[in-house]
Amino acid sequence: MPRTDGGPVEQDHRRIWRTFADHFYLFRSTPTGISLAQELHQVFGIEEKLGGSTAQAIYDELEAKLAMPEYHPRALFERFNIEVLCTTDAATDTLQAHQAVRDSGWEGDVRPTFRPDAVVNLPTPGWRANIDKLSEVSGITVDSYARFIRALEQRRALFKSMGATATDHAAQSACTVELSLSEAEATFERALRGQATPADADRFTVHMIMESARMSIEDSLVMQFHVGSVHNYSSYVLDRFGPDKGCDIPEHSEFTHNLWPLLNRHGYDSRLTLILFNLDETTYSRELAPLAGHYPATKLGPPWWFHDSINGMRRYFDQIVETAGLYNTVGFNDDTRAFPAIPARHDVWRRMASNWLAGLVVHGIIDMDDAHKMALDASYGLAKRAYKFDDR
Description:
The protein has helices at residues 13-22, 31-43, 55-66, 73-79, 96-103, 117-120, 127-138, 145-161, 181-192, 198-219, 235-241, 260-266, 283-294, 310-324, 342-362, 368-386; strands spanning 85-86, 89-90, 110-111, 114-115, 166-171, 222-227, 229-230, 249-250, 274-278, 298-300.
């Protein structure tokens, strides 16, 4: 990974792999170790365990197999039996890659997901340049708040025409506030002049979560909301490699009061699907499960990021389902950046869901017929319905 200060970094891929293999034992029992071991064995057919003594032989085998047609991305897509794969794309993305997939004649279903964070979060590095790009790709000169909203709506419509069914939003807090039109306009104009304050940025971000919910009601795109990560926590990494290179840390979250403005306005609107993801497990039974159990618009995403693990899934089932019910969750959707890891990650979820259901059967809470139906929904049906793929 290049350093922002131009300092030296290792360039030899084999040496990097050997260093990783020498320390692979550190990942034993972790989600990363489970996933990598399973994909090496099941996807690439490698029998030997990865370590310092086997590193170069495994590297050679991987290099040879990745050059074979049956290991190309489209071949793996079909081998993995993927029905739909969604990318996450900036609001300013031209979606040319998606158009190229369509034009190729390949039958794989690959869709975009609308991610507006870089234009709605005023402190984003390069925010003003992002606004200029938004003007360019939308054909709307974004020189006012009203034109900004029109440009976002235009982009959402384009994403939807390319098959998108969802949007994705991230914030450190779940806070939602609806600004008056005059305050939103004044804040945006200060931002365009480079005069927005930190307070402006905070209020505008939480206002745009409300606006995004309003847009989702109008255009039917599912709204995903990821909360609770402190980004770029390590100054050491940030200073050497730039933003978004890891070292993100979970923090305490609060939903009951923070989401009240949004849920008070839109929580009973059946046109809205708001899927919540969170890194603070203490909110599961205390706040998230009751909110999802009550408000028709709200559903809970699967255990995410730090908790996308064997024990994280156990805690999720134990703390969420008793209050919210399984059918107020969206089952499992995988957000990995490692394409060959997709089967392993889904397999862990299926196993943990089945194990949890087996416990309910043993204790007489559900019967086997219910368990079979719930297993299929937890692993497949809930996600397909929540993200509106059931009408494909």
